[in-house]
Write a structure and sequence with these properties.
The structure holds three protein chains of three kinds. Chain B is mainly alpha-helical. In chain B, about 75% of the residues lie in helices and about 0% in strands. In chain B, helix 15 runs antiparallel to helix 18. Chain B starts with 5 loop residues before the first helix and ends with a helix. In chain C, the strands form two sheets. Chain C has a two-stranded antiparallel ribbon. Chain C has a two-stranded antiparallel sheet with strand order 3-4. Chain C starts with a helix and ends with a helix. The chains are: A mainly alpha, B mainly alpha, C mainly alpha.
Chain lengths: ~200, ~475, ~675
């Protein structure tokens, strides 16, 4: 009872806030609604017993991604209403297509059937009586069964990093940087010169 | 689970080697700085070559590893081998170009290496998750390469467009995968295939999920109507990147498309055949007509590649072993032709500035007759005119369609080739018959000449012994049908 | 020997093409001429072997490719039909090769030209010796490619380029039909091998298959598709527009490919497929009607043209029409017979015209010629021989072949047969008229060329005249000598016997022949198949007397009118043209085919192209110049501003629509459509 009540609460807020993300006039509001949406999605995961994913969602998406969004949106002065103009011409058609697609998905999920053997071959089920927490269960899988995708994820992140550096990093002239090695290597002779100043003639 | 023994890693040895050499070269690159781009590039080419040798050294009888997530068999081995050949070619023809347009940064070859790794993983994927990972690894590197010339708005725009649309496609892949998982309870190809074979009338949801997956792959092979990014990205990206895009990822994407359809989803082939049918037909029609209106040769090549994917999709739609064999052969010939054409396009430089319009080729036959003749042969081959190799590709594709009873598609294919012949011919006409303009810069890198020569030789001499490659392609295709 | 015939020209091409620089122009000329002459010699040997000893053979060189059930061998097939074609091709080609030495003497790229000619010859040989449809398609496209290179040989001429491209594209449309025909054949017969196809043809005669919901008769479909290919290559009505334009190429090319060999490939293809066509009566009717219309329309256009080569080109088209309606009434032997005689006299006419053009300092307009027959007497004689043969005057080659075609059409005793007969008679009248119009305008009357040209007037060198003599021999005797073999035993003109001694040229066509079993059954053997009830050639020997003589009568009338209009009553031509102005305009503008096609297809294709490419060549960046500010935010802003331009939305939107369409369609099909 409580569970289903919580489900409908989270779900409806999630949908509403998602709607607000795309309709809000102020981009900052959009991002804030996005954060609200993330929180509710995390709530849904908790209801499903997937507490690890819920926490990751809060920490990574809310804590890092959304906040980064907020920064970018606030730093770049983008007029979203201008941006939206381009999209507006597609709204009528888009609404029709969206509505039909939604209808189709309702019929689809309403009449959903599982393959008879589906339950038996769920990829990595946790045994019902297991004492393992989510985190432990994932930890046992990621480095063993899912070793290959895990390594690949690492490579993807590496490529993303290279990409970000390639596309944004540039050498600028006239910028002062700290060069630690040079600073350490500097000797007294390089920086100072001892001169005898004869009195009366100035420096 | 089995321990991380050598036997466990063995089938993925080329990939592991590529990953390690990528990491190593990245470090070396940081120390050498951008001055070391040439060194890094050639090292990357050597890495590909070594990976190819490692691949050849492996036993290609079907073997699975990484808990059944990674598979090596005749089909994947063969396709990976040609992907590596394409990668080597792409690196070779781009080195000089990087210096010419002043984007010689050591990350460029390293990104190509990682993109290549992504493709290799993708082809060998035996699990939706690994497929997604390979696809993303490849795509992410490609997005960056597209925008590599970041001081040019055109390139930046190409990168952004490709990225956003690509993200949309990836989203569809994941959504589709989730629906497939929802029905079968697995993301493992073998298990999915087994489940579907046991349940001949699958749930509609599963088929819709497959549609989503297909759409994202159609985006990668740029089949109509998911092709919209192609002309813009081809035009906007630096030419060497365009060449890379045209030569290799198409091959990899087509390979995994075939593997997904003919692997886990073979038992519901009646459903996907129609989808592929539609995409093939649309690609043929759109590309052959849109090609007519192009003036920029890179855009033209974009439509040409869309059209060629249309032909390959005819073979995929056939749903037979002969069809797959034809696809394999067609893609290989396409790759070789494209490499040749792009090495010519990369030579189109006048006073140090790249020329990209078809008009720029005017009178090439008087300025450099050999180059013109080579390009003419390649274009005739693209148009599918005998006795060039391109004809054989089309012939086998049509043969596959006809023996699968898809007459309409075969008719459409022949019709499209008639229209498409016109735009290829237009280039030849410009080269041979138009008033000569200033000659192109004469210094042509040795590697480009070598690629061009090999490509032309292959195209013209294929007729002498077509059966060698055809038989190999067919036996590669057979690997998908034994299990 | 078989290999020499086919590969000697290829070797010559490779030598002249690859080592052209090393061996020089003279070397290239020698190599190519030698290659083709050797091939010609062995062709004749082969001809005797095959025809007299009945030694037909298929030589398999290699397995070429196999994919599933689809097996293609690389094989050379030598039967009677091939042997005839080999002789025609190699002899005419040899003449043209030698002639080109003289004709192209002022050209810069002699070696390249000779190489192309040899390449063309090789492709043509591949076409006629092929043992299966795929190999035939190779030769088919090969001649197209070589002809493309040859038409556009003088690429400094814009018109030549356009003509080359046009020829190629129009031919692609025909090839489209041929390619589909090959596919259909494979579907129906499960093979592309000739023998296997022909064996099964009878069993398949009742077969139908389903295409786009239509029940189609299999063999009729195949026949019509193959015919479509033939229409393109042989310039029949509908796809003929490229042929007159192709006259922009050097004249030897016109003689070789656009008169004697390439354009007859369609006739060859249909004759080769006689075992299939025989079971597709409807297809035969279509062939008859198209052929007859072509013969007529082309002749009407020929009446009005002024370019000497175009007149001959339209005449070629018209004669090809004869060959096609001969095939349409199952007179395959007659069609090939006319193909052979036509090859000789039309090549003769073209080369003669080339000689005139050469003499007139590259002038092709007949209005700027006249009164030159005394200066170039040999050429004049040759043109007379060619024209007499073309007009079907007795004892010349064209007489025998054209008559038997018309008689066969009459003897077919069907509606389309009669239609073809009367169209053919009308065309024969016009043929005679425009042939003499050509001769009279070119050689007689007042000189209309500039003084400079007239002073420069000279007879062509012997290297150009001697090939003409060879061809003239063919034009004179080929008809008489081969009449019996090609089209039957009964002969109605005995008085020609004593004519055979003239012109002691040791020409191959005069090989002593054993006339004893010299009839069409023995001659063709298995190469051509005619159902007994369709044997119009046999019936043609017993048609009424007036049918036999009518062609000669109308020919003489045509010649007479030409004399009246162009020599005796000058100025009459203009008056007649004025009197029938609308008709004249229609003929002169070639029935407006080009304009029609341009309006219907070309413009439509381009606008469709622009539609699909959304924005064609619009530069990606409009109004966003480099402003030198490279701060990240500005750049990001710049990128975002492009979102506004809508393209990204549009692209994503189209993707979504595509996805939506696929999903909806599938859902409909599975849930509502019953599956």
């Amino acid at each position: 009872m409580i569970t289903s009540l919580a489900f409908y609460l989270f779900a409806s807020i999630l949908v509403l806030s998602a709607l607000m993300v795309i309709t809000a006039r102020n981009p900052v509001h959009s991002v804030l609604f996005l954060i609200l949406g993330f929180f509710n999605a995390a709530g849904l995961f908790v209801l499903l017993g997937a507490e690890f994913i819920a926490m990751i969602l809060v920490i990574v998406y809310v804590g890092a991604v959304a906040v980064l969004f907020l920064f970018v949106v606030m730093m770049l002065d983008i007029s979203f209403s201008d941006l939206r103009k381009g999209a507006m011409q597609y709204v009528p058609m888009g609404l029709v297509i969206g509505a039909v697609l939604l209808l189709e998905f309702f019929t689809l999920f309403g009449a959903w059937q599982f393959a008879p053997e589906a339950m038996g071959q769920v990829s990595a089920p946790i045994a019902a009586d297991s004492e393992l927490t989510n985190t432990e269960a994932l930890g046992q899988l990621v480095y063993t069964k899912y070793f290959l995708p895990f390594q690949l994820a690492g490579l993807i992140l590496l490529v993303a990093m290279i990409g970000a550096i390639v596309l944004t990093h540039r050498q600028r002239s006239g910028v002062y940087k700290q060069r630690v090695a040079e600073q350490f290597a500097r000797k007294r002779e390089d920086a100072m010169e001892v001169r005898k100043v004869s009195s009366g003639s100035g420096a | 689970m089995s321990s991380l023994s050598l036997a466990y890693l063995m089938p993925a040895l080329p990939e592991i080697f590529m990953a390690l050499s990528g990491l190593g070269l990245l470090v070396v690159g940081v120390f050498l700085g951008n001055g070391g781009t040439r060194t890094i590039s050639w090292s990357v080419a050597v890495s590909f070559a070594v990976a190819a040798l490692l691949l050849l050294g492996l036993d290609w009888d079907r073997i699975e590893t990484f808990n059944g997530m990674f598979v090596l068999d005749r089909f994947t081995g063969f396709m990976k081998l040609f992907v590596l050949v394409g990668l080597i070619t792409s690196v070779m023809i781009s080195v000089r170009f990087l210096y010419q347009v002043q984007i010689a940064r050591f990350e460029y070859p390293v990104l190509m290496l990682f993109a290549g790794l992504g493709m290799m993983i993708m082809i060998s994927a035996n699990n939706m998750l690994v497929l997604y990972m390979g696809l993303e690894l490849q795509s992410l590197a490609l997005y960056v390469l597209a925008a590599f010339r970041r001081d040019q708005n055109r390139a930046a725009e190409a990168g952004i467009k490709y990225f956003i649309l690509g993200a949309l496609a990836s989203g569809m892949l994941l959504f589709g995968t989730s629906m497939i998982y929802g029905y079968t309870g697995s993301i493992d190809f073998d298990v999915i295939g087994q489940t579907l074979a046991n349940n001949p009338v699958a749930d509609t949801g599963l088929i819709v999920g497959l549609v989503f997956v297909l759409v994202s792959m159609a985006f990668k092979v740029s089949a109509v109507p998911f092709h919209m990014w192609t002309p813009d990205v081809y035009e906007g990206a630096p030419t060497s990147v365009t060449a890379f895009f045209a030569i290799v990822p198409k091959l990899a994407a087509m390979a995994i498309l075939v593997r997904v359809l003919y692997g886990p989803f073979m038992s519901i082939s009646a459903d996907w055949q129609q989808i592929i049918w539609f995409m093939a037909a649309a690609s043929l029609i759109v590309s052959s007509f849109a090609g007519l209106a192009q003036k920029n040769i890179k855009r033209l090549m974009a439509y040409s590649s869309i059209g060629n994917m249309g032909y390959a999709l005819i073979g995929v739609a056939a749903g037979t072993q002969v069809g797959v064999g034809a696809v394999v052969l067609y893609m290989i010939i396409y790759m070789i032709m494209t490499a040749g054409v792009f090495s010519v396009i990369l030579m189109m430089r006048r006073n140090g500035i790249g020329a990209e319009d078809i008009e720029d080729l005017s009178g090439l036959s008087t300025n450099s007759p050999l180059l013109a003749a080579a390009l003419a042969i390649l274009l005739f081959s693209m148009a599918g005119i005998p006795p060039m190799a391109g004809f054989f590709g089309k012939l086998l594709i049509f043969n596959a369609a006809v023996s699968a009873g898809m007459f309409n598609l075969a008719v459409l294919g022949v019709l499209a080739s008639v229209v498409a012949a016109f735009y290829y011919l237009r280039i030849i006409k410009v080269m041979y018959f138009d008033e000569a303009v200033d000659p192109f810069d004469q210094q042509i890198a040795f590697s480009k000449r070598a690629v061009l020569l090999l490509s032309v030789l292959f195209i013209t001499l294929f007729i002498l012994k077509p059966d060698a490659l055809i038989a190999t392609s067919m036996s590669a295709a057979a690997a998908l049908f034994t299990g | 020997m078989e290999l020499i015939i086919v590969f000697a020209p290829l070797l010559a091409f490779l030598t002249a093409g690859l080592f052209g620089k090393q061996i020089g122009d003279a070397g290239a000329q020698f190599v190519t001429c030698a290659g083709v002459i050797i091939a010609a010699f062995f062709s004749v040997v082969m001809f005797m072997d095959v025809v007299f000893d009945g030694d037909t053979r298929v030589i398999t060189l290699a397995t070429w490719m196999s994919s599933g059930d689809f097996q293609v061998n690389w094989a050379l097939r030598f039967d009677q039909l091939t042997a005839v074609m080999l002789c025609v091709i190699n002899i005419v080609s040899a003449c043209v090769h030698v002639y080109s030495i003289g004709y192209m003497s002022h050209d810069k790229a002699k070696g390249r030209f000779m190489a192309y000619l040899s390449l063309f010859t090789f492709a043509m040989l591949m076409l006629v010796t092929s043992d299966n449809l795929v190999q035939l398609f190779f030769g088919w496209e090969g001649v197209g490619l070589a002809s493309y290179l040859l038409i556009g040989f003088w690429n400094h001429k814009d018109s030549a380029n356009k003509a080359a491209v046009k020829a190629f594209i129009v031919n692609r449309v025909g090839d489209f039909g041929l390619a589909l025909g090959i596919m259909a054949t494979f579907v129906v017969f499960g093979t592309v091998q000739f023998d296997a196809i022909f064996e099964q043809a009878e069993e398949m005669s009742a077969l139908t298959f389903d295409f786009l919901g239509f029940e189609l008769h299999a063999l009729t479909t195949i026949s019509l598709l193959l015919f479509m290919g033939a229409v393109g290559k042989s310039a029949q009505l509908g796809l003929h527009t490229w042929l007159p334009d192709a006259m922009e190429g050097p004249t030897p090319v016109s003689a070789l490919s656009h008169a004697a060999t390439m354009v007859t490939a369609g006739v060859f293809l249909l004759a080769r497929f006689s075992p299939v066509f025989e079971y597709a009566p409807f297809a035969l009717e279509v062939v008859t009607v198209v052929g007859a219309c072509t013969a007529f329309v082309a002749a009407t256009i020929g009446l009005t043209q002024f370019d000497i080569k175009r007149v001959i080109a339209y005449s070629t088209m018209s004669q090809l029409g004869y060959m096609f309606f001969a095939i349409g009434v199952s007179a395959y032997g007659a069609a090939i017979f006319h193909l052979m005689t036509h090859a000789f006299f039309k090549a003769l006419l073209f080369l003669g015209a080339g000689s005139v053009i050469h003499a007139m300092s590259d002038e092709q307009d007949m209005r700027k010629m006249g009164s030159i027959w005394k200066e170039i007497p040999y050429t004049y004689v040759m043109m007379w021989i060619g024209s007499l043969a073309l007009a079907g005057m007795p004892f010349f080659a064209g007489y025998f072949s054209k008559d038997i075609i018309l008689e066969a059409a009459f003897a077919a005793d069907s509606k389309v047969g009669m239609f073809a007969f009367w169209m053919g008679i009308a065309a024969a009248l016009m043929t005679a008229f425009y042939s003499w119009r050509l001769i009279l305008m070119t050689f007689h009357g007042k000189p209309r060329a500039s003084k400079k040209v007239m002073d420069h007037l000279h007879e062509s060198p012997s290297v150009m005249i001697s090939p003409l003599v060879v061809l003239a021999t063919g034009a004179l005797f080929a008809g008489y000598v081969f009449y019996g073999g090609f089209v039957g035993s009964a002969h109605h003109d005995t008085e020609v016997h004593h004519e055979v001694t003239a012109l002691g040229d040791s020409h191959v066509e005069e090989e002593p022949v054993d006339t004893f079993k010299w009839d069409k059954e023995h001659f063709w053997g298995e190469a051509i198949k005619v159902l007994p009830e369709n044997d119009t050639v046999e019936a043609a020997h017993s048609v009424p007397f007036w049918v036999k003589k009518l062609p000669i009568v109308v020919g003489l009338v045509g010649i007479f009118f030409a004399y009246v209009v162009y020599l005796w009553r000058e100025g009459l031509a203009v008056k007649i043209a004025a009197a029938f102005a609308p008709l004249h305009r229609l003929f002169f503008n070639k029935w407006y085919f080009d304009e029609l096609y341009d309006r219907i297809f070309v413009t439509k294709a381009w606008s469709l192209g622009r539609f699909f490419s959304v924005r064609g060549d619009r530069k990606t960046i409009d109004g966003f110049g480099p402003d030198g500010i490279s701060s990240l935010s500005m750049r990001m802003g710049g990128v975002f501003s492009k979102f506004q331009s809508g393209f990204l939305f549009q692209y994503a939107f189209i993707m979504i629509i595509g996805l939506f369409a696929l999903v909806t369609w599938l859902m409909y099909r599975i849930t509502l459509g019953g599956y």
